[in-house]
């Protein structure tokens, strides 16, 4: 598979003959004023929306925060063959957006017969009790029909919690894409995975390659890829960490099926 980091949580994933885009953010740097906080985007995308090409599915963890779906990202959605997101998000977006509750699935097929099964997974966008404030979020597991590619797990904006542990019990992905960065806005707590959460995730998915996104490009991200590299090296997980250079397609070779 090939993964190209575009910026923040946005990545182009090419696997099993399909092309997926995570949480589209294509705006230039700027501010987004919300009722209780202003989000500041500090870096533009490594690739423009026009350079992405055909997309089989946008995998949108949630639509309610600008650092996961900005203005240009929202304008991109109609270009994708499918948009999969939360149930409430699909209601807000309208159009062809499809809502998936955790553990529900959507199967996509290519004309040549290839298939992918997309399973929505639980996510909690901060500490226990944050749900009414942060809103609904999901992650995704991509399972490929011919078995030639091990599943891919995209955590979406979440911290480490029982829902992520349950994904580890149900699936054996070869690649895990944690949304990290230790995002912090209004309170003294993280809204996405910090280094400890990402290490817990690496331990739970014991042989998976860890490919973090959501570590740069916004002022409220408080940890970056360098912090992850240091933490992984100290605890011996370094060989399993793959850091992406924005705009550069990177071939990821998952371990063989157990």
TrEMBL record:
Q: Does the keyword Nucleotide-binding apply?
A: no
Q: Where is the Metallo-beta-lactamase domain?
A: 19-214
Q: Cross-referenced Pfam families, in alphabetical order?
A: Lactamase_B_2
Q: Which UniProt keywords apply?
A: Hydrolase
Hydrolase as a keyword of this entry, yes or no, is yes
**Which InterPro entries does its entry note?**
Metallo-B-lactamas, RibonucZ/Hydroxyglut_hydro, UPF0173_UPF0282_UlaG_hydrolase
Task: State the name under which the record lists this protein.
Answer: MBL fold metallo-hydrolase
The organism encoding this protein is Benzoatithermus flavus
What is this organism's lineage?
A: Bacteria, Pseudomonadati, Pseudomonadota, Alphaproteobacteria, Geminicoccales
């Amino acid at each position: 598979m090939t993964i190209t980091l575009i910026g923040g949580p946005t990545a182009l994933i090419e696997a099993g003959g399909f092309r997926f885009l995570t949480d589209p953010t294509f705006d230039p740097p700027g501010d987004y004023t919300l009722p209780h906080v202003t989000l500041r985007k500090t870096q533009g995308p490594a690739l423009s929306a026009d350079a992405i090409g055909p997309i089989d599915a946008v995998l949108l963890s949630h639509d309610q925060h600008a650092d996961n779906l900005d203005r240009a990202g929202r304008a991109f959605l109609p270009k994708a063959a499918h948009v999969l997101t939360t149930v409430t998000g699909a209601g807000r977006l309208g159009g062809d957006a499809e809502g998936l509750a955790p553990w529900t699935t959507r199967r996509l097929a290519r004309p040549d017969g290839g298939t992918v099964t997309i399973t929505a997974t639980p996510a909690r966008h901060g500490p226990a009790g944050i749900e009414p404030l942060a809103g609904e979020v999901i992650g995704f597991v991509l399972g490929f029909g011919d078995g030639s590619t091990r599943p891919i797990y995209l955590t979406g904006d979440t911290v480490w919690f029982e829902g992520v542990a349950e994904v580890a019990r149900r699936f054996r992905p070869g690649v895990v894409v944690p949304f990290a960065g230790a995002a912090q806005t209004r309170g003294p707590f993280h809204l996405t995975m910090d280094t400890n959460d990402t290490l817990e995730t690496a331990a739970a998915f014991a042989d998976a390659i860890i490919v973090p996104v959501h570590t740069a490009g916004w002022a409220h991200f408080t940890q970056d890829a360098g912090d992850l590299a240091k933490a992984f090296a100290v605890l011996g997980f370094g060989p399993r960490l793959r850091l992406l250079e924005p705009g550069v397609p990177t071939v990821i070779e998952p371990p063989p099926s157990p």
